[in-house]
Protein backbone atom coordinates (compact mmCIF):
# COMPACT_ATOMS: atom_id res chain seq x y z
CA UNK A 1 0.00 0.00 0.00
CA UNK A 2 2.84 2.35 0.84
CA UNK A 3 4.33 1.75 -2.61
CA UNK A 4 1.04 2.60 -4.31
CA UNK A 5 0.71 5.81 -2.31
CA UNK A 6 4.25 6.85 -3.25
CA UNK A 7 3.52 6.21 -6.92
CA UNK A 8 0.29 8.22 -6.72
CA UNK A 9 2.06 11.17 -5.09
CA UNK A 10 4.81 11.10 -7.71
CA UNK A 11 2.20 11.08 -10.48
CA UNK A 12 0.31 14.03 -8.97
CA UNK A 13 3.49 16.05 -8.57
CA UNK A 14 4.57 15.33 -12.14
CA UNK A 15 1.14 16.23 -13.54
CA UNK A 16 1.08 19.49 -11.57
CA UNK A 17 4.51 20.42 -12.91
CA UNK A 18 3.26 20.11 -16.48
CA UNK A 19 0.61 22.77 -15.83
CA UNK A 20 3.04 25.24 -14.23
CA UNK A 21 4.15 28.12 -16.42
CA UNK A 22 7.58 28.48 -14.84
CA UNK A 23 8.53 24.82 -14.91
CA UNK A 24 11.76 23.58 -16.49
CA UNK A 25 11.28 22.10 -19.95
CA UNK A 26 12.61 18.66 -20.76
CA UNK A 27 14.81 17.83 -23.72
CA UNK A 28 12.03 16.16 -25.74
CA UNK A 29 10.04 19.41 -25.57
CA UNK A 30 12.83 21.72 -26.72
CA UNK A 31 14.50 19.64 -29.45
CA UNK A 32 13.18 22.11 -32.07
CA UNK A 33 14.46 25.13 -30.19
CA UNK A 34 13.52 26.96 -27.05
CA UNK A 35 10.95 29.72 -27.35
CA UNK A 36 9.12 32.20 -25.22
CA UNK A 37 6.17 30.46 -23.52
CA UNK A 38 4.11 33.64 -23.85
CA UNK A 39 4.84 34.06 -27.60
CA UNK A 40 2.21 32.37 -29.75
CA UNK A 41 2.98 30.79 -33.09
CA UNK A 42 1.39 32.82 -35.84
CA UNK A 43 -0.90 31.38 -38.44
CA UNK A 44 1.51 32.44 -41.18
CA UNK A 45 4.31 30.41 -39.55
CA UNK A 46 2.12 27.31 -39.49
CA UNK A 47 1.01 27.73 -43.10
CA UNK A 48 4.61 28.16 -44.24
CA UNK A 49 5.64 25.07 -42.27
CA UNK A 50 2.88 22.92 -43.82
CA UNK A 51 3.81 24.10 -47.32
CA UNK A 52 7.44 23.15 -46.79
CA UNK A 53 6.48 19.76 -45.40
CA UNK A 54 4.15 19.03 -48.31
CA UNK A 55 6.75 20.12 -50.86
CA UNK A 56 9.31 17.85 -49.20
CA UNK A 57 6.90 14.89 -49.25
CA UNK A 58 6.17 15.39 -52.95
CA UNK A 59 9.83 15.75 -53.90
CA UNK A 60 11.22 12.87 -51.83
CA UNK A 61 9.81 10.00 -54.02
CA UNK A 62 11.23 11.69 -57.12
CA UNK A 63 14.66 11.85 -55.51
CA UNK A 64 14.38 8.23 -54.46
CA UNK A 65 13.45 7.20 -58.02
CA UNK A 66 16.14 9.30 -59.69
CA UNK A 67 18.94 7.88 -57.59
CA UNK A 68 20.25 7.27 -54.10
CA UNK A 69 19.53 10.41 -52.04
CA UNK A 70 22.20 11.72 -49.75
CA UNK A 71 21.91 11.62 -45.99
CA UNK A 72 21.60 15.40 -45.95
CA UNK A 73 18.57 15.29 -48.24
CA UNK A 74 16.87 12.62 -46.16
CA UNK A 75 17.53 14.43 -42.90
CA UNK A 76 16.50 17.83 -44.24
CA UNK A 77 13.33 18.98 -42.56
CA UNK A 78 12.02 22.54 -42.37
CA UNK A 79 12.18 23.92 -38.87
CA UNK A 80 9.00 24.99 -37.09
CA UNK A 81 9.16 27.80 -34.53
CA UNK A 82 9.18 26.48 -30.98
CA UNK A 83 5.64 25.71 -29.86
CA UNK A 84 4.44 26.64 -26.41
CA UNK A 85 2.14 24.43 -24.38
CA UNK A 86 0.24 27.58 -23.43
CA UNK A 87 -0.33 28.68 -27.03
CA UNK A 88 -3.97 29.52 -27.64
CA UNK A 89 -3.88 29.34 -31.43
CA UNK A 90 -4.33 25.86 -32.85
CA UNK A 91 -2.72 24.79 -36.15
CA UNK A 92 -4.96 25.38 -39.15
CA UNK A 93 -6.53 22.44 -40.94
CA UNK A 94 -6.18 22.09 -44.68
CA UNK A 95 -9.36 21.71 -46.68
CA UNK A 96 -9.87 20.82 -50.32
CA UNK A 97 -8.16 22.77 -53.12
CA UNK A 98 -5.34 24.00 -50.89
CA UNK A 99 -7.50 26.19 -48.58
CA UNK A 100 -6.44 26.49 -44.95
CA UNK A 101 -9.36 26.87 -42.54
CA UNK A 102 -9.50 27.85 -38.90
CA UNK A 103 -13.04 26.52 -38.47
CA UNK A 104 -15.12 23.76 -40.03
CA UNK A 105 -16.84 24.73 -43.26
CA UNK A 106 -20.13 23.62 -44.73
CA UNK A 107 -19.60 24.75 -48.30
CA UNK A 108 -16.21 25.23 -49.94
CA UNK A 109 -17.59 27.43 -52.65
CA UNK A 110 -19.84 29.77 -50.64
CA UNK A 111 -20.07 31.59 -47.35
CA UNK A 112 -18.67 29.72 -44.39
CA UNK A 113 -19.70 30.15 -40.80
CA UNK A 114 -18.46 28.65 -37.57
CA UNK A 115 -20.60 27.15 -34.84
CA UNK A 116 -21.28 30.60 -33.35
CA UNK A 117 -22.57 32.03 -36.62
CA UNK A 118 -19.46 34.16 -37.19
CA UNK A 119 -17.95 34.04 -40.70
CA UNK A 120 -14.85 31.91 -40.52
CA UNK A 121 -11.48 32.99 -41.85
CA UNK A 122 -10.50 31.53 -45.22
CA UNK A 123 -6.96 32.02 -46.51
CA UNK A 124 -6.12 31.19 -50.13
CA UNK A 125 -2.60 30.04 -50.86
CA UNK A 126 -0.49 31.77 -53.46
CA UNK A 127 1.02 29.73 -56.25
CA UNK A 128 0.08 26.26 -57.47
CA UNK A 129 -2.26 24.20 -55.36
CA UNK A 130 -0.43 21.35 -53.63
CA UNK A 131 -1.59 17.96 -54.83
CA UNK A 132 -3.13 15.52 -52.39
CA UNK A 133 -2.59 12.52 -54.63
CA UNK A 134 -0.59 9.54 -53.57
CA UNK A 135 3.15 10.46 -53.59
CA UNK A 136 3.89 7.12 -55.25
CA UNK A 137 2.04 8.33 -58.36
CA UNK A 138 4.81 10.87 -58.95
CA UNK A 139 7.36 8.13 -59.51
CA UNK A 140 8.67 8.02 -63.04
CA UNK A 141 7.22 5.16 -65.07
CA UNK A 142 9.71 5.56 -67.91
CA UNK A 143 12.24 2.70 -68.22
CA UNK A 144 15.60 3.60 -66.79
CA UNK A 145 18.67 1.83 -68.08
CA UNK A 146 20.41 2.30 -64.72
CA UNK A 147 17.51 0.91 -62.72
CA UNK A 148 17.76 -2.72 -61.58
CA UNK A 149 14.12 -3.19 -62.64
CA UNK A 150 14.62 -2.10 -66.24
CA UNK A 151 13.36 -4.54 -68.86
CA UNK A 152 16.68 -6.25 -69.83
CA UNK A 153 17.76 -6.69 -66.23
CA UNK A 154 14.28 -7.79 -65.20
CA UNK A 155 14.19 -10.43 -67.95
CA UNK A 156 17.59 -11.70 -66.81
CA UNK A 157 16.38 -11.93 -63.23
CA UNK A 158 13.27 -13.85 -64.27
CA UNK A 159 15.34 -16.29 -66.33
CA UNK A 160 17.70 -16.87 -63.42
CA UNK A 161 14.80 -17.47 -61.05
CA UNK A 162 13.18 -19.94 -63.44
CA UNK A 163 16.51 -21.72 -63.92
CA UNK A 164 17.07 -21.95 -60.19
CA UNK A 165 13.55 -23.31 -59.66
CA UNK A 166 14.09 -25.90 -62.39
CA UNK A 167 17.42 -26.95 -60.90
CA UNK A 168 15.85 -27.17 -57.45
CA UNK A 169 13.01 -29.35 -58.72
CA UNK A 170 15.46 -31.60 -60.55
CA UNK A 171 17.64 -31.97 -57.47
CA UNK A 172 14.61 -32.91 -55.35
CA UNK A 173 13.39 -35.55 -57.78
CA UNK A 174 10.27 -35.96 -59.92
CA UNK A 175 7.86 -36.76 -57.12
CA UNK A 176 5.28 -39.54 -57.11
CA UNK A 177 3.27 -40.96 -60.00
CA UNK A 178 -0.49 -40.45 -59.50
CA UNK A 179 -2.86 -43.39 -59.32
CA UNK A 180 -3.39 -44.98 -62.73
CA UNK A 181 -6.85 -46.34 -63.54
CA UNK A 182 -7.35 -46.21 -67.32
CA UNK A 183 -5.45 -46.32 -70.59
CA UNK A 184 -6.11 -42.59 -70.96
CA UNK A 185 -4.23 -41.99 -67.71
CA UNK A 186 -1.27 -43.96 -69.06
CA UNK A 187 -1.13 -41.91 -72.27
CA UNK A 188 -1.52 -38.60 -70.44
CA UNK A 189 1.11 -39.34 -67.79
CA UNK A 190 3.62 -40.55 -70.38
CA UNK A 191 3.22 -37.82 -73.00
CA UNK A 192 2.16 -34.72 -71.09
CA UNK A 193 2.24 -35.32 -67.35
CA UNK A 194 -0.54 -34.11 -65.07
CA UNK A 195 0.23 -30.93 -63.14
CA UNK A 196 -3.15 -31.02 -61.38
CA UNK A 197 -2.15 -34.30 -59.74
CA UNK A 198 1.44 -33.28 -59.05
CA UNK A 199 3.11 -34.84 -62.10
CA UNK A 200 4.94 -31.83 -63.56
CA UNK A 201 7.42 -33.70 -65.80
CA UNK A 202 6.07 -36.25 -68.33
CA UNK A 203 7.18 -39.80 -67.66
CA UNK A 204 8.96 -40.06 -71.01
CA UNK A 205 11.45 -37.39 -69.83
CA UNK A 206 12.28 -38.90 -66.47
CA UNK A 207 15.24 -40.89 -67.77
CA UNK A 208 16.68 -37.72 -69.33
CA UNK A 209 16.07 -35.19 -66.55
CA UNK A 210 16.57 -37.30 -63.44
CA UNK A 211 19.03 -39.83 -62.14
CA UNK A 212 17.70 -43.36 -61.50
CA UNK A 213 18.15 -43.02 -57.72
CA UNK A 214 15.78 -40.01 -57.70
CA UNK A 215 12.79 -42.10 -58.78
CA UNK A 216 13.82 -45.49 -57.41
CA UNK A 217 10.61 -45.75 -55.36
CA UNK A 218 8.51 -45.14 -58.49
CA UNK A 219 10.55 -47.35 -60.83
CA UNK A 220 8.12 -50.27 -60.78
CA UNK A 221 5.08 -48.09 -61.53
CA UNK A 222 7.05 -46.34 -64.29
CA UNK A 223 8.00 -49.68 -65.85
CA UNK A 224 4.40 -50.93 -65.88
CA UNK A 225 3.10 -47.69 -67.43
CA UNK A 226 5.83 -47.83 -70.07
CA UNK A 227 4.86 -51.40 -71.03
CA UNK A 228 1.19 -50.45 -71.41
CA UNK A 229 2.13 -47.39 -73.47
CA UNK A 230 4.44 -49.45 -75.72
CA UNK A 231 1.69 -52.02 -76.24
CA UNK A 232 -0.69 -49.27 -77.33
CA UNK A 233 1.71 -47.21 -79.47
CA UNK A 234 3.85 -49.98 -81.02
CA UNK A 235 1.83 -53.19 -81.18
CA UNK A 236 -1.54 -51.47 -81.68
CA UNK A 237 -0.18 -48.64 -83.85
CA UNK A 238 -1.62 -45.97 -81.55
CA UNK A 239 -5.17 -46.90 -82.60
CA UNK A 240 -7.86 -47.13 -79.95
CA UNK A 241 -9.94 -49.34 -82.24
CA UNK A 242 -7.15 -51.90 -82.63
CA UNK A 243 -6.45 -51.77 -78.90
CA UNK A 244 -10.12 -52.39 -78.04
CA UNK A 245 -10.22 -55.35 -80.44
CA UNK A 246 -7.10 -56.83 -78.89
CA UNK A 247 -8.03 -56.10 -75.28
CA UNK A 248 -11.82 -55.76 -75.26
CA UNK A 249 -13.36 -54.07 -72.23
CA UNK A 250 -10.00 -53.53 -70.50
CA UNK A 251 -9.36 -49.88 -71.36
CA UNK A 252 -10.80 -48.75 -68.01
CA UNK A 253 -9.52 -51.71 -65.94
CA UNK A 254 -5.84 -51.04 -65.42
CA UNK A 255 -4.99 -54.05 -63.23
CA UNK A 256 -6.60 -56.61 -65.53
CA UNK A 257 -5.05 -54.83 -68.51
CA UNK A 258 -1.59 -55.32 -66.99
CA UNK A 259 -2.16 -59.06 -66.64
CA UNK A 260 -3.36 -59.36 -70.25
CA UNK A 261 -0.40 -57.37 -71.61
CA UNK A 262 2.03 -59.45 -69.54
CA UNK A 263 0.52 -62.64 -71.04
CA UNK A 264 0.73 -61.18 -74.57
CA UNK A 265 4.38 -60.22 -74.06
CA UNK A 266 5.17 -63.67 -72.74
CA UNK A 267 3.48 -65.26 -75.78
CA UNK A 268 5.57 -63.09 -78.10
CA UNK A 269 8.76 -63.90 -76.22
CA UNK A 270 9.34 -60.33 -75.10
CA UNK A 271 9.77 -61.26 -71.44
CA UNK A 272 12.76 -62.93 -69.85
CA UNK A 273 12.22 -65.84 -67.51
CA UNK A 274 13.67 -65.50 -64.04
CA UNK A 275 15.65 -68.28 -62.45
CA UNK A 276 13.90 -69.36 -59.28
CA UNK A 277 16.08 -70.20 -56.33
Write up what this structure looks like.
- It contains nine helices and three strands; from the N terminus they run H-H-H-E-E-E-H-H-H-H-H-H.
- The protein has a domain at 169-267.
- The radius of gyration is 40 Å and the shape is elongated.
- Strands 1-2-3 form a three-stranded antiparallel β-sheet, with no helix packed on it.
- It has 277 residues and is mainly alpha-helical.
- Residues 120-153 are annotated as: Disordered.
- Residues 130-153 have a biased composition (Polar residues).
Main features:
mainly alpha, 277 residues, 3-stranded antiparallel β-sheet, 3 strands, elongated
Indicate the mean pLDDT.
70
Q: How many extended strands?
A: 3
pLDDT under 50 segments (min length 5)? 80-118, 120-125, 135-150
**Element-level helix/strand string:** HHHEEEHHHHHH
Strand order of the largest sheet: 1-2-3
Number of discrete helical segments: 9
By secondary-structure content and strand pairing, the structural class works out as mainly alpha
**Residue share in helix:** 40-55%
The radius of gyration over CA amounts to 40 Å
Report, as a whole number of angstroms, the end-to-end distance.
Answer: 91 Å
The fraction of residues in strands falls at under 5%
Largest sheet: 3 strands, antiparallel
Which of globular, elongated, flat, extended, rod-shaped describes the shape? elongated
Biased composition (Polar residues): 130-153
Region (Disordered): 120-153
